[in-house]
Amino acid sequence: MGLLSIAIWLPIAFGVLLLALGRDAQAGVVRVTALIGAVASFAVTIPLVTGFDPGTAAMQFQEALPWIDRFNMKYRLGVDGLSLWFVPLTAFITVIVVISAWKVVTERVASYMGAFLILSGLLVGVFCALDGMLFYVFFEATLIPMYLIIGVWGGPRRVYAAFKFFLYTLLGSLLMLVALVYLYFKSGGSFDILAWHRLPLPLPAQALLFFAFFAAFSVKVPMWPVHTWLPDAHVEAPTGGSVVLAAIMLKLGAYGFLRFSLPIAPDAARDYAGFMIALSLVAVVYIGLVALVQQDMKKLVAYSSIAHMGFVTLGFFIFNGLGASGAIVQMISHGFVSGAMFLCIGVLYDRVHSREISAYGGVANTMPRFAAFAMLFAMANCGLPGTAGFVGEWMVILGAVQRNFWIAAAAATTLVFGAGYTLWMVKRVYFGEVANEHVRTLQDLDGREFFMLALLAAAVLWMGLYPKPFTDVMNVSVDALLRQVAAGKLH
Known about the structure:
It is built from 22 helices and 2 strands. It is mostly helical. The chain has a two-stranded antiparallel sheet. β1 and β2 form a beta hairpin. α2 packs parallel to α4 (109-128) and α15 crosses α22 (468-487). It is globular, with a radius of gyration of 22 Å. The mean pLDDT is 86.
């Protein structure tokens, strides 16, 4: 087994072990086991980053084993500059989620921790798979643990939210399965994704493939107008579920555009770039306005996520290096920032059991350490220079200027709307006089919560102040992808 296989199967093995321990196991043993599994899984991803060669666009750390010989399916793994950072990001967020649930989750602890560790392994599998059917299996399998996490540990309307999440994402993926089968027969019986990139395809076939992939990936991002499942899922999900959903699962759709839509159907991607840019700008502008009127903190951050992911799809379809690299940086930074925002809401909810903005006021008076962290993450959500939230958005706006000034101007409104809804929430929740007795009796962060938020704060500041390690890894792969799209298959 190579490093990628260990990164996939180690957390899954720990998750299965926790499920086997079941309800009878002591909660303390379960929590320690889950933390060991999460930290070990993260440790495995570090050599991937340190051993990666940023000077080549070729796949690295490749593994290939026979899987289902009759259909020429292989267990084929590898990472390049487009996918590398999502592997340690997934493992890092899983560590944070395990720490966040340490005292909060008291029912079915083994099942809760096990579900997250299994989900972590499956998510890493999506980013590493180089076989079309293996990708599809991992892509769909991630639905199951998240469905259970929302449906079992969620809020009052958890069953409705879980069903909506499951149906939206499953129905979108069925067309992708048809596309994968078509590519299998067209390539002479191969599910090798890299071979599909070189497959000569006529424009009508490319167009159909592009929209088949669009059906699957746009729901996952989610793009407007198929975004309506996300606010419901976020509001009903437990804190850990919201963190993983925002930080990692939304990235699966955007990653799918990079790995499938652009290289397999490059001519169709260029033809429909205007359509994709229009949908992205609607997400940035319209959803930003929707976020302004939210009264529920989780809904506000959920809509904020949709607006920020609109930047990602915009960056991909303006077809220049700054835009595409900025979009990938935005995916990573959004993982840190949105995860941190949902954790902050979780810290307050654990104490007051309300997500309504009106239930708070003056929290900084009673929780000053917590308010300092919350302000940092809120500023990152606004895109403040020096934080992770700024780098990707700025690169995408610069890339958009190179394509069309008015596209860039529309995209830049997110800096205004983002500051509007985020600062409006911060002002009403954290500042002013203490609003009620609940706020007056709040206890500041304990050691566990402080450590958890400090880890994310370090990541947000590191990426904001020194993004070079992130961008250096992806530059060569992004340039290779853009050359492939520019060359097309019909020239």
